[in-house]
Protein 1
Amino acid sequence: MDAPVITIVEDELIVAEDLRQTLEGEGYRVSGCFDTAEAALAHLLESPPDLVMVDIRLKGPMNGIELTEIVRKARNLPVVYITANADEETYRRAKRTKPQAFLVKPFNPRTLLAAVDLAFYNFSENQEAEDILQADALERKASSFPVADGFFIRAGGRHRTWPEYCTEHR
């Protein structure tokens, strides 16, 4: 099993590229960058990632909140909303979709990685307790979360696959 897979839905090319480079530099795999909700929809439904980062305001007829509402009806995916500024009504509407984190523009690598980590953590906290694999009790601050094909463990400051974690701790 590979590193956690993240899909980016962001209509600002420079922001999307910054997200992609930072995430890949930290060992995450980016399955795609889409500039409209319509372009991302089929990908998210057919090849769901482990996490999706969605700009709230996108070009085109559908915004990021509407995309999240559609995808969440079919797939249980952790969501990080990206926003530059959201009025109170937009924020309330976004909050109702129960995102795992918000990333406010402008961001730096540290806040980006904190939002991704928080999203994985919040997503795992919402899963059924019996479905979450318990990390090695000796590993400080290790956590796990289930995904479609297995488990990821947070250890040593990054997410690793369960087999990768076991190999490192033999």
Protein 2
Amino acid sequence: TSTKQITQRIKLKDLDEKLSDNFIRVHRSFLVNKAKITSFKSTHVLIGTHEIPVARTYKSVLKEL
């Protein structure tokens, strides 16, 4: 979150299924809120000052943005 880090003991795949369509998977370890993305390139997504890597298998997701 923007204020703190939250750790959950749930598979990211299960969390992805529970969250709304506002969230997209960009890496096997990361889900991001589309509304919070400030910019993106083929290799990473920027959310504010945080750079999150984009895996090759999820690059097609960015084309939808």
Protein 3
Amino acid sequence: PRAEQVADDRVAIAVASTASGQALAALLRQLPACLEAVGGIATVECQFDLASASARDFLAAVDEVISAASGEPARPGRVLDVPVAYGDAAGPDLDAVCRTLDLTRTEFVRRHTGREYKVAMLGFTPGFAYLDGMAESLACPRRDTPRQHVAAGSVGIAGHRSGLYALAGPGGWQIIGRTNLELFNPNAANPFRLGAGDRVRFVAADA
């Protein structure tokens, strides 16, 4: 892949996987002119300081990093077990989702907890974790009408992904449960519990 200038002070690079994107973003952050590099699901976007490097020079530097990059990162990411109370007040959409998928609540929970998920990226709302790895049989569309308020710790599904709300906020995902695990600590060096490349295992828990 090659870097493409998408704004006066930004470049973007298409990547083959979220893992290689996170690895590339980490390398780009080491460039002197780099202000921020963020790995997404299929791209990396990098903002640079125009006062210390021209766009032409920065593009050349990024292309050198890409050529030297080894691809997938060696670090497999942390593994976090997330206890989840499924259904009822904690997961108000679970029963409707089960009807759509023609599954019992017990079978849905068994399939949802039977996988290891990978954090593809954070975004949408601060700390919201997009999780790859959900069983295809659980794929479900978003809600027709988004909610104005979704509680922190809520677990949702939309399309072929699960998601974790680190903070309360609006959202249109189907809310199937909630965890009481602290996902955001403003006093910590890294306020958000999860980062791209980390892995999640959901564990069914009592409300």
